[in-house]
């Protein structure tokens, strides 16, 4: 009986130990998931690891159906008519209560459940429909992206090599989520376009998106309730005397609450920015004062004190590029108080006059041996002193010629390498068009008028949309003067730009038949690249 009781007790103990091991395993934190570049797998696994109650589905963005039938598709159908089976008879149409046939639903769309459309989902566009590692565009619309979800995107998106567009429409962004988004977007190497329409943020920290590390080229912030505060932050990041944004090409601020103060800040950014080419300010609260500041930035303007100081610094650095270079540490250590180019002879004599005791003993032993050699050298130098001086002069000349030849050989080698890598260099220059390749606007030729330095304004901006604002005749007059100045200004180089080519000022506080407005439209029509002149009766363009 005793043995049976012991066996029963041992059986009871074993499962308890197993459950204890299971409890210990459940308490252990799972290892962090490493993204592999497959967005479907990475996104679902990270959502499960964060224990989300609802995991948004990842779907390929639906596209409108192509045209049914066509000339190209008709020929194969004719060839295959012989092999086709007999078509089935069409089903009889359903009849309503009155006995009339009911029209079937169109075949251009598919019906779904009532609430399925409103479920959160992430829509993507793939370069290759069979591969989820080729996500090119990402769309999130109509559901809130909280901080945990933004952290999941922070892990997923940088691993997508082909991602170039991110569209978060009406996703309830906050200051924290926008900060997280701006922190990891520079890690997406090929990301060019960011659309954050319909995301009002009280703190208005939009400037974080276009910082010094930003790679965004096209930014859309429509209907985000941006006020003068947010516009001031954006303007400061566009350009100042010390730093400018060299990536952003187009900026859309339609449907916000920007007034004259905010536009003045944006115009301040346009003074030094030479990259932005399209600016859209439709449906804001812009008046004549704000437009006058934009016109000043586009025509010419006097430099402020900060800009004058920076201009002098740039000119001095360009004139003496080695001015800021420090001498080598060996010279500085010897000179202590004096610069490296000036050396004191007295300090050298003092060091020679005060040798240590060990050095004295060594010198005493070698002095006798050196006197014999010195006598012989003196006799040789007396006899051939003239020859020695001639040899020294010729040696110096040869060294000089050798250094010149070496420099010439280096330059020849560089020119050969440049010729070989000419195609590569052109491609790299086209890809790396940043601020280092462009001329700093502060280094342009300045005109001194009434004690102030005036320089030419921004000629890189080619598209400006100011429709649906509160601009009057005074604002249009300032724009007209700016465009007239741009047309008469001679361009020194291609990098300076061509000036405005498209200007939209419709639906402002001006009569459509206003004289200034008609002059402005006449001035801008020939510059508009989309404008087609009317044809004459002979068939030629007017």
TrEMBL record:
Residues covered by region (Disordered): 1-35, 58-111, 312-387
Pfam families (UniProt xref): LRR_6
Extent of the signal sequence: none
InterPro entries xrefs: Leu-rich_rpt, LRR-containing_protein_71, LRR_dom_sf
Biased composition (Basic and acidic residues): 1-26, 74-85, 312-340, 363-383
Residue ranges, compositional bias (Basic residues): 353-362
Xref: SMART domains: LRR_RI (SM00368)
Composition skew (Acidic residues), residue ranges: 89-101
Descriptive protein name: Leucine-rich repeat-containing protein 71-like isoform x2
Protein's organism: Plakobranchus ocellatus
């Amino acid at each position: 009986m005793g043995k049976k009781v012991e066996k029963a007790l041992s059986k009871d103990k074993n499962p308890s130990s197993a459950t204890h091991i299971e409890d210990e395993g459940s308490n252990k934190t799972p290892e962090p998931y490493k993204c592999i570049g497959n967005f479907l797998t990475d996104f679902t696994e990270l959502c499960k690891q964060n224990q989300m109650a609802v995991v948004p589905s990842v779907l390929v963005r639906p596209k409108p159906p192509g045209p049914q039938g066509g000339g190209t598709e008709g020929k194969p159908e004719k060839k295959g008519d012989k092999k086709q089976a007999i078509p089935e008879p069409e089903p009889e149409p359903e009849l309503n209560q009155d006995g009339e046939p009911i029209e079937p639903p169109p075949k251009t769309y598919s019906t779904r459940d009532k609430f399925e459309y409103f479920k959160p989902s992430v829509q993507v566009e793939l370069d290759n429909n069979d591969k989820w590692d080729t996500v090119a565009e990402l769309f999130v619309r109509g559901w809130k992206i909280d901080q945990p979800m933004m952290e999941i995107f922070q892990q997923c998106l940088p691993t997508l090599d082909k991602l170039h567009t991110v569209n978060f429409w009406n996703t309830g962004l906050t200051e924290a989520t926008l900060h997280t988004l701006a922190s990891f977007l520079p890690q997406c190497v090929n990301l060019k376009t960011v659309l954050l329409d319909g995301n009002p943020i009280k703190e208005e920290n939009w400037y974080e998106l276009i910082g010094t590390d930003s790679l965004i080229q096209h930014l859309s912030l429509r209907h985000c309730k941006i006020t003068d505060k947010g516009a001031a932050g954006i303007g400061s990041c566009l350009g100042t005397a010390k730093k400018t944004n060299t990536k952003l090409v187009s900026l859309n601020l339609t449907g916000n609450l920007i007034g004259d103060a905010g536009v003045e800040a944006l115009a301040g950014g346009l003074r030094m920015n030479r990259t932005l080419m399209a600016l859209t300010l439709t449906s804001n609260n812009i008046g004549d004062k704000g437009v006058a500041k934009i016109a000043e930035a586009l025509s010419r303007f006097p430099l402020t004190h900060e800009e004058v100081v920076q201009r002098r610094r740039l000119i001095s650095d360009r004139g003496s590029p080695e001015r800021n270079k420090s001498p080598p540490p060996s010279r500085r250590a010897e000179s202590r108080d004096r610069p490296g180019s000036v050396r004191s002879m007295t300090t050298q004599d003092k060091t020679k006059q005060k040798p240590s005791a060990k050095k004295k003993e060594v010198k005493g032993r070698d002095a006798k041996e050196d006197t014999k050699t010195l006598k012989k050298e003196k006799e040789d130098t007396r006899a051939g002193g003239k020859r020695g001086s001639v040899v020294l002069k010729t040696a110096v000349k040869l060294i000089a010629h050798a250094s010149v030849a070496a420099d010439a050989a280096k330059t020849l080698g560089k020119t050969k390498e440049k010729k070989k890598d000419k195609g590569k260099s052109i491609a790299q220059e086209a890809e790396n068009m940043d601020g280092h390749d462009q001329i700093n606007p502060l280094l342009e030729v300045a005109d001194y008028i009434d004690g102030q330095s005036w320089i030419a304004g921004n000629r890189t901006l080619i598209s400006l949309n100011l429709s649906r604002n509160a601009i009057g005749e005074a604002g249009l007059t300032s724009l007209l003067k700016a465009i007239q100045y741009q047309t008469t200004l001679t361009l020194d180089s291609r990098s300076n730009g061509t000036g405005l080519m498209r200007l939209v000022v419709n639906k402002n506080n001006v009569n459509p038949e206003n004289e200034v407005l008609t002059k402005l439209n006449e001035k801008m029509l020939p510059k508009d690249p989309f404008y087609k002149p009317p044809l004459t009766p002979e068939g030629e363009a007017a």
